[in-house]
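Lecture 7 notes. Example A: sequence first, then its structure tokens.
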Amino acid sequence: MPTINEIAQRAGVSVSTVSRALNNKKGVGRKMRGKIISIADEINYFPHSSARALVQKRIGVIGVVIPRTSEFAFQNPFYPKMLMGISSTAQMHDYNLMLDINKKEGYVSLYYRKLVDGIIVIGNRIHASYMKELNENKIPSVVVPGYPAGSCYTIPSVAPDTFKSVQRVVSYLIKLGHRKIAFILGKMTSMFSIERFAAYKAAFEENNLTYDPKYLLESNFSQKDGFRLMGDLLDFSDPPTSVICINDNVTPGVMQQIKKRGLNIPEDISVVAIGSSDVLDSFEPPLTCIKTPVVEVGQTAAKTLIQLIETGHCAKRHTGIPAELIIRDSTGACSREKASLN
């Protein structure tokens, strides 16, 4: 394997000069720096990671932790898109990624064992023990989506900002005559569910209406749960006239259940999807949806963490990336018959 000594011999300079040139430090002329880099490329020299860590005072690795099973993570479009965003930004700043899925504990040890420079947790739960550990040990960390306002945690967070979009779409359904608006949420230990439920309530209050809590169900964010819970809703003696789906996984399950019952969208029930998958664009009829900018969330999470690693601070404690509401054919006026039962 080529060494830094070989470059020094070929260039006729000291090892320290080569080190300064390769690490873009001062004290090396432009012409000599170019010569050294050219020799390094010619002999396929790659700096030893441990040596580079000593010089740069960083390992060059970002830990990405997904506290869910591998099956769930890779079947949900949210996670690959998030990784796409993190990876593109990490690469631009010369960082590699270490992915850890379904890790239950020991996040802090990844840092203290010098395996990573910092950690991004995707899909954090607000009461999870690792949040406390990361916070108390002041590990360079970023969480997605984060935690409620007023929380004791100081860990920076990044998330799609869906509050306004959810509030708008619920008000839109109300204007169409809907009152029995179901919302298949995730667990209420997730900021995704907490924020979107708050927006749902705000829309009813804004329209001087009271929502019926029986139409609000918690899922485990899976397609199977979407199918099951939509079945439960349709089994009510007074089923909902519209339904909102919390994510890309829940939506297909909901659509399958509606199709299985022989119901038409939006004549029998209106459907709203929240998510980032391009699959949302392929359903028939085209789905009214809240498109979440997940790739951009990943990019921002990586930028925030790299800023923390390299400077010790970041510009904002929480960054929300606005989502987009797209009205399509899956939402329509509540029928007179159904409206009379509201």
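Example B, a different protein, same format:
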Amino acid sequence: MKTINILILLVLFQITMYSQESLKREMRAAWISTVDNIDWPSKPGLSDKEMKSEMTAILDNLRSYNLNTVVFQIRPTADAYYKSSKEPASHWITGKQGLAPGFDPLQLMIDEAGKRGMSVHVWLNPYRVQKDITKDVLVKSHLYFKKPELFVTYGKTRYFNPGLQETRNFVASVVGEIVRNYDIQAIHMDDYFYPYKITGQEFPDEQAFIKEHRQFKDKDDWRRDNVDLIIKQIRDTINANKPEVEFGISPFGVWRNKSKDLDGSNTIAGVTNYDDLYANILKWQKENWIDYVTPQLYWHIGFDRADFEVLAKWWATHKYGANVYIGLGDYKITKKAKEVEWRSANQIVRQLEMIRSIPLLDGSMHFTANVFQKLGDTLRKPIVEKQYKHIALTPEANRVIKIQPAPPINPNVTQKLGQVTLHWMHGKDNKKFVIYKFSKDKLADLSNSENIYYVTTATTIEISPTDFQNYDFAITALSATQSESTLIQFNK
């Protein structure tokens, strides 16, 4: 009985520590969607100056919420928001596919997010090519015109055929190019592998099934294997190029209902990953093919068909070593919401509190960035006063080989005309820097995020003379795997 009581106290202690405002490691991300110009740019055809201004405004706003990660959609429809040798520049940027802006959007995002201490995950849609085939947007140099046999049309949307090895090879090559050329934290994909079903229409992959059936007799099992194959191939591609880069998936929120599988969730969802989207997420987690999973739990607490609390706890107990970041549906918040639960920001506040109360969860991602702009203090005030009060570092992935950075070199201080500037130089494997501010009468506690002053990729930062006089400042470095170096003091 004594042992049981001790275990209960330890669990309660863990929950308390995880729920407190000063949590140091927690994913706090926002998706930046580019398809349909949801987030950036606000419309096609803006000038380079206008697009750059919009991007920095988005990042400044997200930073004001103490978010630490952006998930930037760089390949919404087999096109590119980056310099690609394989696919044309996206028409969502300039209004014409193949016509790139005068700068590299992804590189700008990496640079500007880094200055603000934010990591960048790049979001790719693996198979969607053209969202609406009634619109003539594909440039003639697109792969579709060179190899039309690789593509299928379902409803109004054109896709790569997931049943063909050649298309999987191409998608993996796209991932390899991005990983080699850009300093990113993660490759991210959402729920669009096989598309959501259209009533009365069969996905047109019968010829691929005949051609490359791999001894499968059941088409559903074959489709699931097709998706398994691309996930494994992308994992291998990342490892072959930069094994420190993470791979994350943001699936639909329900893997399977319990009525279909005893290991499923206590839900009655009309769509599930396994049965309808052919995505066997749990297998990918068990096989170490992905580093994190972000289930899209865009339902309110208490929703009868798919309760947020039920699903958050289900995913927490089905993580299999992967990090779990809950996907939040901030976009549903509006005073005119059909469901009364979404008529204020309180639903998201409650969901964040619930995530904090479940120790096996590692944070959250918010859909999408423009909601933070639209809602302003309506959302900022409640979450920054509590859950996001202090800066938090992003979690370390459990499955990448950790890179231990050396501390920054030669931290020093200059004072000129009333300004105080902290300076330092890069040490080995330094990607970002964490500046700490400690009260003079307290120990330098690195575990408490209340002591984090700022995070940045820069090598200088200005601080107020008053802070400099009243506090001690120190610095650590973060590596590409978010591992932290030892602490170095700034000498006064």
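Note on Example B: Confidence is low (pLDDT under 50) at residues 1-20. The CA atoms of residues 179 and 242 lie 7 Å apart.
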